Predict the 3D structure of the following.
Amino acid sequence: MISSKRASKLVAGLLMVGVALAAPAAQAMNMIRDTEIEEIIRKEANPVLTASGLNADDVDFYLVADKELNAFVTGGQNIFIHTGLIQETENPNQLLGVIAHEAGHISGGHMIRSGDMNRAGMKPFLLTMGLGVLAAALGAPDAAGALIGSSQYFGALGALNYSRVQEAAADQAGVAALEKAGLSGRGLVEFFDNFRYQEVFSEAKRYQFFRSHPLSSERIEGLRRRVEAQPHYSETDSPEAMAAHALMKAKLNAFLSPPQQIFIKYSEKDTSFPARYARTIAYYQATEPEKALKSLEALLAEQPNNPYLWELKGQILFESARAGDAEPAHRRSVELKPDAPLLRINLAQTLLAENTPEKTEQAIQELGKALTVEKDNAFAWRLLSEAFDSKGMPGQARLAAAEYHYAVGELREARVFAMRAREHLEKNTPDWRRATDIVLVSDPSDDDLKTIAREDRGPSPSN
């Protein structure tokens, strides 16, 4: 689901998170989380990452909600992809070509090594959830933003330029990885070919991707010769991969574009599943829940075991103030995909909205399962804090609040809530120790350290 403190409306399917930066001059980035889209990218990319000599589980993908065509690697093994780049790819192989190229930068060690970058120490703490769960947060900007780096860090990203030697090396590594994975490198050549005209543009007029990844006719032709010589050059995308790619683009379009544009782009004459999916989302975006639900029921009749359709149904009902009706839909999405933490957070939020002791306890259980998978999920911690507070458990509520603030990089607030949590938690329990740990890693004051040391020593012996 897409949502943001910059968004005028919560939307389903993706979560958009505004990145809070330290300096006003630094341009903010809107990060997207969506289980369905992440699954599509991960399924296609993992073989290429493995063929690149990387542990696919160690590579994280981050989607940036930006029409600008761009992709980059930073912070170790983190691949950032702009939605604008995805929309410009014509098929999965073109997107995989870009991913293989970026993986080549990782395997080649083409990282930013400046002192500023090392000091920045980016740690991406992204708010994660499913269908528009920031409804309450729109009135509380602190809940909608995530601090994933400093202004110096993102300033360095904008200034980064790979050398032509590094670009050539990443090209070669990408082609080799695609071939090893049994895939064609043709998509990478096609993608570069589509933007060959960027070579003649001034630096300021080029897409950001081609400012950081210098493009030239010689580079494209050299890459083409190498790709055409590979045994798997003629391999094509499977029908399943093509369908998933079309669905991903339609979903991104539907959530990031005005509804009227979607109704034009995906007219009623287009009866494909991606087009009908996009129109369903557009009805939802246009605040026409009954039309959205009617369209969605037709999709569910075709794919009754699609967890993301149930997720969308749950959110449409939830945002129509029908939490009780939304719960079964969200439960069904979790049943169909129990390993997806964002879907569990959707369910937990719905349970909390029903506002009964039984539902609150169920929400706590769902949030606990989600946090087992994504321990830095800031929104889950925020919901958990609210749940514990409603149950009259101040220690656990303050500890969860400390976790939330730590996850979004607000160290002072994290320290304050952790110190308060320690006052209510039983000493030497796991929760009490965790609260102490948060204090110690959140720039504690001398008074905080003295308090902790005094409590660790225990009461002074009597004479």
Notes: The first helix runs from residue 35 to 51. Residues 258-297 form one domain. The first strand starts at residue 15 and ends at 19.
